[in-house]
Design goal:
InterPro entries: HTH_MarR-typ, MarR/SlyA-like, WH-like_DNA-bd_sf, WH_DNA-bd_sf. It comes from Deinococcus navajonensis. It holds the Pfam family MarR_2. It is a single chain. By secondary structure, the chain is mostly helical. It has a single domain, classed as Winged helix-like DNA-binding domain superfamily/Winged helix DNA-binding domain (Arc Repressor Mutant, subunit A), CATH 1.10.10. It is 62% helix and 8% strand. It contains 6 helices and 2 strands. A two-stranded antiparallel ribbon has the order 1-2. Strand 1 and strand 2 form a beta hairpin. Helix 1 packs across helix 5 and helix 3 packs across helix 4. The radius of gyration is 19 Å and the shape is globular.
C-alpha cells in the first residue's frame, strides 16, 4: 500500500509507468511463488489453528495486535474488518484464553488498549516458525546460489518497504549454531 505522504499522493495511478510495470511483474511472480508454496504453508497453519482452537479471525487479530502494539477495540475492528461488537467479543475470548490483555489508555482514560500477552506472542512465534519451515522445505532443494540471490533481492525490497511502514522484518542472516 502506498503511504498517503508518498510523493504520488498515495495513488498508484500517480506513479511513473515504469514503477507500475515493474510492480506488476513482481506481483505476478509473487503470485506464482505463493501458489507453489501455499499448500505446504496453509496445511501447517490450518493444523496449528485446529490444535490451538483458534479461528482465522482470532489469528488475524493476534497478528494485528502484534503489528499495532496497544490498540483499541475500534481500531482492531477496522484492521480486521469486523464490526465493533464482533471485535469486542473476539478480544474477550482472547483475554479469557490469556493471549491478549486490556489496559487503560494513558492518552484517554475512558479507553482500553488491547495488547498481546507473552502467551499470545508465543502462539504467533510458533506460527512464524512453522511458516518459515514451509518456505525452507520449498527452497532447500534449490541451488544455494539461486536462493542467496533471491534472499539479497528480497532484503533490498524489504529495506525499501520498511521505512514506508511495512514494519520490522527479521534478518535473513543464517542463525549461528554453537
Amino acid at each position: 500500500m502506498i503511504p498517503p505522504d508518498h510523493p504520488s499522493g498515495g495513488k498508484l495511478e500517480n506513479l511513473p509507468a515504469e514503477h507500475r510495470e515493474a510492480a506488476e511483474e513482481l506481483g505476478h511472480a509473487m503470485k506464482q511463488l505463493h501458489r507453489l508454496i501455499s499448500s505446504r504453508v496453509m496445511r501447517g497453519m490450518q493444523a496449528e489453528l485446529i490444535d490451538l482452537d483458534l479461528s482465522f479471525s482470532q489469528m488475524t487479530a493476534l497478528h494485528q495486535l502484534r503489528a499495532g502494539g496497544g490498540i483499541t477495540v475500534t481500531e482492531l475492528s477496522a484492521r480486521t474488518r469486523l464490526s465493533v461488537p464482533a471485535a469486542s467479543h473476539l478480544v474477550e475470548r482472547l483475554v479469557q484464553r490469556g493471549l491478549a490483555g486490556r489496559e487503560e489508555n494513558p492518552g484517554n482514560r475512558r479507553e482500553k488498549l488491547v495488547r498481546l500477552t507473552p502467551a499470545g506472542l508465543e502462539v504467533l512465534g510458533s506460527m512464524d516458525r512453522n511458516f518459515v519451515t514451509g518456505y525452507v522445505s520449498t527452497f532447500a532443494p534449490l541451488q544455494p546460489a539461486t536462493v542467496r540471490a533471491a534472499t539479497q533481492t528480497l532484503m533490498a525490497l524489504l529495506g525499501e518497504l520498511e521505512p514506508q511502514g511495512a514494519g520490522p522484518c527479521e534478518s535473513a542472516a543464517p542463525k549461528e549454531t554453537p
